[in-house]
Design a protein that fits this description.
Alpha-Beta Plaits; 255 residues; 5 helices
């Protein structure tokens, strides 16, 4: 009998083409998780030509090169393994840059994407005379220090229930681009500058475009007071550049 399993997964997205299946590659997080679970099903003798494919549903669709510390996902499985044994099996056969950190049987109606109430993303930058050798895959290296105060002033104008079409990287987006963002917080620690953004949901590339826009404010290329005009324009060309994927990490999903 199938049960619904909720999993918390972390991954280094450097060499992957994002979370979601892609037509011409098996290098996706979803694909790697499903391949291991298909192997489990075959080993237990519950697979076969007539069996429906295993589908791991993620709370979001992180882009190519984006990382996650705590992606929530769920999957329907018919297995005799305990939760602990299932976690151990997956971590035994998954690549070393993907980890299943927790496995729990959950309610049949739990859906990791539809039940999600909010997400926290962190974008990390680095500046300084030295180079972040051991963090180089996870930070965006800046050639000069941005003004934190200016960026935070602009960030405060980005929050609220708003139309974020100007911060959407998908020009063919047909669905609503209205989202609720309640926190955009910028913290400096040594050579690190971290942007923490929490909201009900995010558009494609939204956090990276918000970060790129804030960095332009910090570098003096635009003023904080421009943010309301950018939002009102609903025009991607009015916002800043898209910050590189490697600095972005999904930190938490709220339920």
């Amino acid at each position: 009998m199938k049960k619904n399993y909720k999993m918390i997964v972390s991954y280094d997205g450097t060499r992957y083409y994002g979370w979601e299946h892609q037509p011409d590659t098996d290098m996706t997080i979803q694909g790697k998780l499903e391949a291991v679970l298909e192997g489990l099903r075959m080993s237990e003798g519950t697979g076969g030509a007539d069996a429906s494919p295993i589908t791991v549903i993620g709370a979001g669709r992180t882009d190519a090169g984006v990382h996650a510390r705590a992606m929530t996902c769920n999957v329907l499985l018919d297995t005799e393994l305990t939760e602990e044994a299932l976690q151990a099996y997956m971590n035994r056969y998954l690549p070393e840059d993907i980890s299943v950190n927790d496995v729990r049987i959950c309610a049949d109606r739990f859906h990791s994407r539809f039940k999600a109430m909010g997400k926290t993303y962190r974008y990390t930058c680095w500046y300084g005379a030295s180079r972040p050798v051991f963090d180089r895959k996870y930070v965006y290296v800046l050639d000069r220090k941005p003004d934190i105060g200016r960026m935070q002033a602009a960030a405060d104008l980005m929050t609220g229930l708003r139309d974020y079409k100007s911060f959407c990287g998908n020009p063919r987006m047909k669905k609503s681009t209205v989202r609720a963002v309640d926190t955009v917080r910028i913290e400096e620690s040594g050579s690190y500058i971290r942007f923490y953004i929490h909201g009900s949901g995010f558009l494609q590339n939204m956090v990276r475009i918000m970060t790129g826009t804030l960095l332009e404010v910090g570098f003096g290329d635009r003023d904080p007071e421009e943010i309301p005009e950018i939002l009102a324009a609903c025009d991607r060309s009015r916002a800043g550049f898209t910050a590189p994927a490697k600095g972005l990490c999904l930190m938490k999903v709220d339920y």
